[in-house]
Amino acid sequence: MKRLVVLGGGESGVGTAILGKKKGYEVFVSDFGKIKENYKEVLEINGLKWEDEKHTEALILNADVVMKSPGIPDKAPIVKKLVEKGIPVISEIEFACQFTDAITIGITGSNGKTTTTMLTYHLLRQGGLNVGLAGNVGKSFAWQVADEDYDCYVLELSSFQLDGIINYKPHIAIITNISPDHLDRYDYKYENYINSKFRITMNQTEEDYLIYDNEDEAIQNWLKNNKTKARLIPFSVVEKQENGAFLNTDTMEFTINNEEFEMKTADISLEGKHNMKNAMAAASVAQLMKIRKQTIRESLSNFQGVEHRLEKVLKIANVQYINDSKATNVNATFFALDSMTTPTIWIVGGVDKGNDYSELMPLVREKVKAIICLGLDNKKIIDAFVDVVDIMVEVDNMRDAVNTAKHMAEKGDTVLLSPACASFDLFQNYEDRGKQFKVAVQNL
Question: Which of 128, 187, 349, 409 has its CA at 20 to 30 Å from residue 30's CA atom?
């Protein structure tokens, strides 16, 4: 009997353990942190062996295969020991894909991947396909492969999940864009991170498709210097694409496998230029999957965005409050500020991942009237913008941030939470940060 060791007892770890047991593996789950009570219960009910707050080497280094949760870095001592012993360390996606014949649509990118994933799932489901949603969103892919019977899956894939694949191959891959993020996990080398994203296409064949942003410099350079067998479907908001999607003034035009389709941008529920790109990527998948054009149009017009991503919370005294807590890097905040059309009070800060704020300068000059720093260490933000905006305030909790914003705001202004940073200094995660913002706004 083969031994499967699962490192990390969260959603992907528990899902993998359940699938492993079902497929006849001897399974052991080990988490260096604490496993949440609800996951412990699931492990117990399924008769799975586990430990937490430690890694017992004797129970781990005898594995035939190890599934590592995406949050555990390759530099972790236990991972290094496994690699030295030549034991394969793979991701949940790699483990689960061998046990399903379902078509997968894999979506990666530095920003926009959750919106594109949810939008693609919405289009395919509205089109009547029997489709699952997994990866970074929803229920674990492995868990669904164990319990469900979907014909296709839409998977949101981080670079960390792609680092752990060997044979996994999506039928359709999307790279929304690439900008520096998580460089602390890639020896601070941008090219390592770019290569990691492009692993999504490494096993694709001539039967498969790669959909990508044709204006993205990192993507263009990689495609110039490297080969993929996949059929290329570019999208662009600036120039015509012979085989792909592009924005022609106020109309999105598609030519995919000689099939043509167009849609007015005014009919799309999402706002902002970056969302036109997300819509092009998702609609390209829908066309490849033979969804009716009328269904694609209807689905793009009735899609209700993603929580914590440019989410309109409330309008109070003619001031709009927007929750963009999911913006954990500068590039995501760039999109947010770019889509602002009124004077903005910007709540920013948290754990900096090596941010360079200079690219935000023109937008901050043009749109931001005041900055509220919400973090334990705001020095970098203050240094960057002290000469650009008149008012800067530091706070260390969400209630103060929102109350301060309320006092600064005048009729017609927008209060935007778009942190450009991770949340772990003051919050559990970006969801917790976004929820606290919404509660604070509702209490005004």
Answer: 187
